[in-house]
Amino acid sequence: MSRRERKATESAGKPTKLDPNLISDDTQKPGAVIPVHQEVIDLSNEDITSSGTEGQQARKEIQDLFEEFEEPIKNFLEGNRERFTAIIASSFETMEQKVEDVLKSQCEQRQKLYQDYSLQIMNLSRKLSMDADQVKKHAEKLSSMFKEQRKFIHQTLILQKKRMEEFKSLCEQYLEKLETLRDSRGNSVAEELRHLIATLEIKLLMVDGQQESAAAAQQSLLDLLFS
C-alpha cells in the first residue's frame, strides 16, 4: 500500500477532534444543555468550514490516488498493447480461418451433394425418357394390333355373314329339291300303281275269259255226253 493510501485510510479512521476551547464535551452534542451563566457560541460557520476543508482534502487525496495509479496503468496498457493486439489479431485470424474452413467445407459438401443429386436426377430422367419411349412404342404397337384385330374381326364377320347366307341358300335349295323329289316320287308311284292296276285288270279279264272258255268247253262236253 502506498503512502497516500495509508494516509487516506488513517484520515478516514481518525475520530473527530474536539475543540479545546469548549468547556465540556456536552457542547459538542446537539442535544446538550448549556448553563444560563455561560455564553452561547455559534459553531455553525466553523462546522461548515471544517466540513468543506475535509471534503476538499478527501477529493484531493482521491485525485492523488488516481494520479498515482494512472501512470502504472498507462504503462501497463502501453506495454501490453502490442501483445493484446497480437493476441486479438491472432484470435481474429484463427476465427477467420475457422469460418473460412467451415464455409469451404460447407461449399464442398453442397457442391458434392448437388453433383450427386444432379447425377441421380439425370439418370432418373434418362430412365423415365426411355420408359416413356417404350410405352409409346408399345402403345403404337397395341394400337396397330387393335386396328388389325378390328379389321380381322370385321372381315371375319363379313365372311361369317356370307357363309351363313350361303348355308341358308343351300338349305333352301335342299328343301326345294327335297320337295321336288318327293313330288316327283309320288307321281311316279301313282303312275306305277295305275300301270299295275291296269295290268291286273287285263290279267283278270284274261282269267275271266279263260274261265268262261273252260265253262263253255265243260258245258259243251256235258252236252256231248248227255246228248
From TrEMBL:
Residues 77-203 form the XLR/SYCP3/FAM9 domain. GO terms for biological process: meiotic cell cycle; spermatid development. Residues 1-31 are annotated as: Disordered. It holds the Pfam family Cor1. Transmembrane segments: none annotated. InterPro entries: XLR/SYCP3, XLR/SYCP3/FAM9_dom. One of its GO terms (cellular component) is synaptonemal complex. Belongs to the XLR/SYCP3 family. This is X-linked lymphocyte-regulated protein 3A-like. It comes from Cricetulus griseus. The gene is LOC100757478.
